[in-house]
Amino acid sequence: MRWKDEELFHVIHKVPAGDSPYVRAKRAQLVEKDPSRAISLFWAAINAGDRVDSALKDMAVVMKQLDRSEEAIEAIKSFRCLCADDSQESLDNVLLELYKVEVHINSLLNIPLFIYLILVFQQCRISGNLAWAYLQQNDYESAERYYM
Fold it and tell me: How far apart are CA 29 and CA 34, in angstroms?
């Protein structure tokens, strides 16, 4: 492909340029429409340290599409420690969506658990936002209390 054609390909298919494990996974997911291959390539990207935050989130989304939500939840819980602090909230959002699927799959028997999880995620988000605000005001003691 010529340079302009290749650039247009990446824009049309929303696939990043290059040949890294993450790029190959996105190509398998979005262009080849091969979710099983995409998952194995996302694992390869995570193991190689290639865009771990994005690879973990994207892999979880593909797993959800394949009704593998429980596996996706475990993957995020196990590997989120490799992700940057600024991606934790988006990982929480993915987890919340996965938990919604799991609750639905279990015939909504755990509604109190689901409500509890929503409240916990919301509380964490609020606490994080408050901590950040205190940090911006150089009130480190209050920021630390909310981060804890």
Answer: 6
